[in-house]
Amino acid sequence: MENIYNKLHTTEILNRIENLSPNLKPQWGTMNVAQMLAHCSAFQDIAMGNSFPPRDWLGRLIGRFLKPMLYNDKPTPHNMSTISTIRILDDKDFETEKEKLKQKILTYQSNGPDKCSPHPHPFFGEFTNEQWGKGIYKHLDHHLRQFGV
Questions:
Q1: Residue 71 belongs to some domain of the structure
Q2: CA spacing 20 to 30 A to 17: which of 38, 39, 115, 145?
Q3: Residue 50: in which H helix or E strand, if any?
Q4: Does any domain span residue 1?
Q5: Which Pfam families match (predicted)?
Q6: Is residue 60 one of the residues assigned to a domain?
Q7: What does the angle CA 83 – CA 139 – CA 24 come to, to the nearest 5 degrees?
Q8: Where are the alpha helices (DSSP H) in 49-88?
């Protein structure tokens, strides 16, 4: 399975981000492309230990049972619920958000698995470093597919 700690996988994701344009329409969901980029950056902040959203009650109840979906080879289902603290509703600047996300991905990849957050995922709970790496890739892939890249 792809993993954001693998430089080839990181390069592939960054190339796909370069293929985005501000006028792309989502194939599912309600975010526009700039909001999606900001959402992915906010998710990176969780994985990097820069943001610590609390666990929600539903995640505490069923998150551990659904956790494997974030690091298996099956595509993430469309229209899944998102973490409320990283739901982006306001307008964002496409170029700013694109560059911000690219830098966070590069930083995360270069920091390596030993520097990912020990804080639990707000829904799925505790992740190993390897699970974070696979989950980050899969989250980015999901949203890039959302916009056809």
A1: yes
A2: 115
A3: none
A4: no
A5: DUF1569
A6: yes
A7: 95
A8: 57-66
Q: Check residue 70 and give its pLDDT.
A: 79
Q: Which residue segment(s) compose the domain that 69 sits in?
A: 7-146
What CATH number does residue 107 fall under?
1.20.120
Phi, psi (deg, nearest 5) at residue 40 = -65, -35
Torsion of CA 110, 113, 118, 119, to 10 degrees: 60
Reported pTM? 0.93
Rounded to 10°, the helix 7-18/94-111 angle is: 180
In tens, the pLDDT along 75-126 reads: 888 888 788 889 999 999 999 999 999 999 999 999 988 888 888 899 999 9
For residue 114, what pLDDT is reported?
87
Task: Tell me the C-alpha distance between 115 and 108, whole Å.
Answer: 8
* DSSP code at position 131: H
Report which of 98, 116, 112 is spatially closest to residue 24, judged by C-alpha positions.
98
List C-alpha distances in Å: 135 to 90, 93, 94, 95, 128. 25, 26, 24, 25, 10
Three-class SS of residue 36? helix
Q: Domains in the chain: how many in total?
A: 1
Q: What is the dihedral of CA 49, 4, 127, 121, to 10 degrees?
A: 50
